[in-house]
Sequence to fold (118 residues):
Amino acid sequence: MPRYADTLLSDGERIALRSRQHWFATILDGRVPWAIFVASIVLIVLRLQMTGDGPLEQGLGIIILALLVVSLAWLGKHYWSWYAQDYIVTNRRVLKVEGILNKRSADSSLEKVNDAVL
Fold:
């Protein structure tokens, strides 16, 4: 099954390079869900060391579990959108395709590229 970006190519256009952002970008963009995830793991360890099984401890356990589930879902969304992103250089243009369900694409002709600063 071809990727969405492959359907945007015209006749005779060849892909020279296909890439996406570095995986470290997912850590930077997802620093809030990562912080919630780490905090929930720490709270789980602390909760396991608590003695007693009263309503306060049970409520705390439910809150910790909810934080863990929310952070994992949020991280999953970040990684899925990172995986769905494509940067493509062809023999005619540069394409950026992003989005999970609602795909957005931007392209620029190689003839219009005047300056590349690294």
In short: The chain has a mean pLDDT of 87. The first strand starts at residue 15 and ends at 19. The longest helix spans residues 55-83.
